[in-house]
Amino acid sequence: MFSIIDVESTNGDPIAGRSMEIAVVQFDGKQVTETYTTLIQPGTPVQPYVANLTGINDGMLVGAPTFKEIHGIIDEMTHGRIIVAHNLMFDMQILRSEFGRLDADFERDGICTDKLSRTIWPERKRYNLTSLCEMLSITFEGKHRAESDALATAELFKQMLAYANSEVRTKSGAIIENILAA
Questions:
Q1: Which tens digits make up the pLDDT trace of 123-147?
Q2: Three-state secondary-structure class, residue 15
Q3: pLDDT, tens digit, 9 for 90 and up, residues 20-38
Q4: Of the residues 21, 36, 80, 170, which has the maximum number of CB atoms within 10 A of its CB?
């Protein structure tokens, strides 16, 4: 039903940057059913601030598959599913750019947990993944690594779905129901 994704890129620009790590987490609305993650040889150097943030450096990417080599897996794992990501626009744009370099399209329906969290918890001051996970007691290690961020997003989304289905009916519950009904 859902493919929760996280992409780490060589720089902060989702169009010019190249993917260097991706995780796709299959989520049936209740639990994770499958996980795929891989480093990706981007063909361009990792910017120093990104290496510092993610811990991924050029040396780690030597011998990793190229996006061309894994794009079929990504396409298959996300086909017919709703993409869920924290900061969906970034992840979708980098995937569209990568698929576009291969003369292929990547169009999927999506849900952004960042935007959704702003509706559910409008009183919050910070909506980054770490802050939301701290608020909900979701623990994860390896922040800014694709698999740990995607798994944390899966748990965040799971709690958002539970919140929407709880006895506490709010505008956010109706929004999630509308998204799921579409």
A1: 889 999 989 999 888 988 777 899 9
A2: coil
A3: 999 999 999 889 999 999 9
A4: 21
**Integer CA distances (angstroms), 58 to 1, 67, 164, in order:** 35, 16, 42
Establish how many alpha carbons lie within 13 A of residue 86's alpha carbon, considering only the half-sphere containing its beta carbon: 26
- For residue 2, what are the β-bridge partners? 27, 82
pTM for this entry: 0.88
Walk me through the domains of the chain, giving residue ranges and CATH numbers. Answer: 2-181 (3.30.420.10)
3-class SS of residue 69: helix
The gap from C-alpha 89 to its chain's centroid, in whole angstroms, comes to: 10
Helices (H), the chain: 48-54, 58-61, 67-78, 88-101, 113-120, 129-135, 146-165, 171-181
Which residues fall within 8 angstroms of residue 174, CB to CB, at 6 or more apart? none
Contact 10, 45 (CB under 8 A): yes
Cross-strand partners of 22 = 7, 38
3-class SS of residue 140:
coil
